[in-house]
Specification:
With 126 residues, this protein is α+β, with helices and mostly antiparallel strands. Helix content is 43%, strand content 22%. 18% of the residues are buried.
């Protein structure tokens, strides 16, 4: 048994709406089915496919205030996310954005690549 490793970046940014988003996967599909079977309230946010067609096809989005999240994720941000093909998940609260993905920072190249991804997200999303 090895440990699970994640690369994580936490960025302070006041006033963000509370949401999480990531790429669609089998795990996410199973999670949705279990939530539905157990009667968990729906937290998925539907995105207008015209605002970000690639995003709507390939990503899930959850949050408690869909109006605030949709207002924050402008069509430009949705197009950016749809074309970026993120490997990880973005989660926010009122004070922070967190980006995490599976893996470890084993070399300087891994570190540089992860930081470049985070910098790109900050430049286009926050």
């Amino acid at each position: 048994g090895g440990s699970i490793r994640y690369k994580v970046a936490k960025i302070r940014n006041e006033g963000l709406p509370h949401f999480s988003l990531g790429r669609n996967s089998l795990v996410h599909t199973v999670e949705n089915a279990v939530d539905q079977l157990t009667g968990k309230p729906k937290s998925s946010i539907e995105v207008d496919p015209n605002a970000g067609p690639e995003f709507a096809k390939h990503y899930w989005l959850k949050g408690s205030d869909s109006g605030a999240v949709v207002a924050f994720l402008s069509p430009e941000k949705l197009r950016f996310l749809g074309s970026t093909k993120l490997a990880g998940v973005i989660a926010t609260n009122a004070s922070y954005a967190v980006y995490f993905e599976y893996g470890s920072l084993g070399s300087a190249g891994d570190f540089d690549s992860f930081i470049a991804t985070v910098e790109n997200l900050v430049a286009h999303i926050l």
